[in-house]
Design brief:
The protein has 19 helices and no strands. With 437 residues, the chain is mostly helical. The longest helix is centred in the middle third of the chain and has 46 residues. It is globular.
Length: 437
Amino acid sequence: MNSNLLRKPDPKNGGISLFSATALGVGGMMGAGLFSLLGTAGAHAGTHIPLAFLLGALAASFSVYSYAKLGATFPSSGGPATFTVMSFGPGVISGGLNIFQYMAYLIAAALYAASFSEYTNTLFGGNLSSLEVKMIGAAIVALCAGINLLGTNIVGRAEMWAIGFVTIALLLFSASGIHAADISSFEMSGGSINGIAIATGILYINYQGFGVVTNSSNAMREPHKELPLAMFSALILVAVAYILVSSTAVLLLSPAEMQRFNGHVLANAAELIAGKIGFVIIGASALLACAAALNATIFAASNIAADMVSKRSISATLGDTILKTQMRALSISSLIVIALVLAFPLDVVGKMASLAFLLVYAVITFGHIKVRKQTGAKLWPLWAAILVNLGLFTTLFINVIQSAPSSALALVGALIGSFCLEGISRKYFRNQTLHTK
């Protein structure tokens, strides 16, 4: 195996702290889903949304285990982009997978940006035009790209402050909401087994942010110790917050009301507790959470792109033109996210993002099995991750085909297109090389 493929941690640069890495993971996870997808999930799970969040966390824990082992063994700013190379070797397979997961991160970033703009519109009374809402989404993408240019430590600090405020606001919301709710009259309703499974798939996007922590592994002093701790700490913190907050929401609002307030359920629930002040505080928290998730996801996507180039896990044709430097990768990433924000509505990018990451996690974990002697991972959690991710993918994909076939076609097109682009560009580069000789 070529040791030059790995970018080792540099102990001289101070690195990113365990607290900042955990905040990066929390910021990557605590975003659009909690604030914007509760109504959509409730349409399938009824009052069982907290159960869907719990199942999603349990499903994600197997992938977290896989990623933590891989990231600790192969520390790199590219994170998952490195994992595919180490598992499948540099070539069309790893190149195509890396292009697809790069696109998956950009789709998720577009989801967070769209959520940010939707909540901004909600705070303005819903009076903004469609164009104004989309322009706000584009502006927050540009702002987060600027923050990322300042480096990993600045990103970590920005996440820490934003998530600190959001966490306090959500704890106050939960405590006040549970106190105000009439628990004695609460009744469970809706949510078949299939419906809860679909809701789990929809809400799974909320946990995809754990992968961004692996992009900071090469900036850690001791990734073998700090990376697993940061990833599992972030997952547990976010899962507890999701279950607590969603439980409060279902106690305060009926499934029909959650459908009516779809896109801003928590803000309207907070309004029942504290009037306009509660509405504004939770609305502001949603803005910060979505911005933090967007910030962390752009950070991960740009690092994956730059790492693909440095390790030649994509063709030289793509690497030497589109993604030549990290600065260019960040700029290209931001422009693609802005284009997605302008082109697609929130619900479409939400389902596409969940489907994309369920598939990516399954494939990367399958590749992990090939190198598990190096990582020291146990076999059963890896197979559990593969089966759980593919099971949720299949359930959600069937639902998407029935409800939004254009989303399913777009995802399949992105997957096929990623491998076609990689294969054609590699062939083009090889032909050019032979011609020049």
